[in-house]
């Protein structure tokens, strides 16, 4: 893979997972009333952000009526509302909201990707579907050469990053570090720091498991760590 642009074209054209193809297209064909009449992206989502990013965010998957509708990661759903406000407050985004792919949002120093690129039923991709998507994350890790900090949005993102490093032949800590909000782990060969946060899903934000100050603090810390890393 020679560029992020070429990789994005390959991701958007992917149809490797029949279950995910059916689901992403079915929800677009029969959207809830609040989205009726709106065009849906209904394809896999490439990553989004600054090609020179020093901070990489690894999420789970697009939401059926969020990224699957708007065509951009974490855009058009409540998880994205939390995420982009925190990124804005930490200095990574030029605005605190992400409504659609043409809203003028830009990221500086950060890049967002996901473990699975299609909206899965019940927000749960299968292990096989995540394995089929893994080469795309691996390609991004190789192309995003300036990354010094990886923020895992939830345990699935944490595990996916460590698993993809192993597939690439890169060293991981032993024993494997455990996920937790605010957990950190430094990779033994290149010094990249893995930083964990609870996912900004409604399950976590509505219950108070994750608060806005907690999420903002993670990205402030990520920015500080990225600035210190060589």
Describe this structure in words.
The chain is α/β, with parallel strands linked by helices. The protein has a single domain, classed as Uracil-DNA glycosylase-like domain (Uracil-DNA Glycosylase, subunit E). The protein contains 8 helices and 6 strands, in the order H-H-E-E-H-H-E-H-E-H-E-E-H-H. A 6-stranded mixed sheet has the order 1-3-2-4-6-5, with helices on both faces. Helix 4 crosses helix 8 and helix 5 packs across helix 6 (155-167).
* Uncertain regions spanning at least 5 consecutive residues: none
The topology string of helices and strands comes to: HHEEHHEHEHEEHH
Task: Give a quick account of the main beta sheet: strands, pairing sense, barrel closure.
Answer: 6 strands, mixed
CATH architecture descriptor text: 3-Layer(aba) Sandwich
Give the overall average pLDDT: 96
Q: Shape from CA axes? A: globular
In the CATH scheme, what's the topology name? Uracil-DNA Glycosylase, subunit E
The neighbouring-strand order within the major sheet is 1-3-2-4-6-5
Q: Would you state the CATH class?
A: Alpha Beta
**CA(first)-CA(last) distance:** 26 Å
Rg, alpha carbons: 17 Å
What's the number of domains?
A: 1
Secondary structure: elements and pairs:
Elements: H1 4-12, H2 18-29, E1 48-49, E2 55-59, H3 67-70, H4 78-89, E3 110-114, H5 127-143, E4 149-153, H6 155-167, E5 184-186, E6 193-197, H7 202-205, H8 212-228
Parallel strand pairs: 2-3, 2-4, 4-6
Antiparallel strand pairs: 1-3, 5-6
Task: Explain briefly what this protein structure is.
The chain has helices spanning 4-12, 18-29, 67-70, 78-89, 127-143, 155-167, 202-205, 212-228, and strands at residues 48-49, 55-59, 110-114, 149-153, 184-186, 193-197. With 230 residues, it is an alpha/beta fold. Helix 4 crosses helix 8 and helix 5 (127-143) crosses helix 6 (155-167).
